[in-house]
Amino acid sequence: MNIDLKSNIKNNIKKENKTSKLNDNIKNDTENKIEETSINKFTIGKKKEDKSVRKSFPLYVDGEMQKKLDDICKKTKYSRNELILMMIQHCIDNLEITD
């Protein structure tokens, strides 16, 4: 009887360790997928008021890109300029320069 109890305890510990490792693997896979998708996405919310001093310079884009930007602006209530500034800031923050 004592041997059965020890065997049961050992088996339960092994099962718990396997389950724990499996859960850790699932958690790590999920975190990696979240990191991968968040790196590729540019996520914005609705516009909040902000008044600050800005510098200007000309920017030329093709007609199709302008239409896409305008569609995004309509959905988010940001001006085209504000949207482009946020996109530029996102790119600067996530820029990796390679040789």
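^ that was protein a. below is b, sequence first then the tokens
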Amino acid sequence: MALWKFNINLPCAVGFNCHLKCIGIMVGTRMGGLVVAEEVKKEVILEVDALRARGTTPCLATVLVGDDPASAVYVRNKHKACAQCGIQTKDYQIPTDTAQGQLEGIIEDINNNDKIHGVLVQMPLPEHVD
């Protein structure tokens, strides 16, 4: 996969003298997605290290309701990415038949936990959960 980084500070490509850039003709630099991902990962590691130096270890909670295989893979990959960056994770695997009120209580507990700094509620949720 390739991403394109466009230089929007170039003069008009067809020679017009205007303050708007030509949309039809753009000059860009091709960037590999893996290269960009690695750069972002390095930045995240630096930020995590800075937080740890101040006594805070970042933690992401993941909430997976049910047993959808694709969702389980996605959540597992989030845990792996966090581990590579020094971010702790806490996994909440909730049965499919969990009532909405119970799920809301779990999420409220996560929100009130000072050691958890982010939460990912994996979609889709079961039909009975709004």
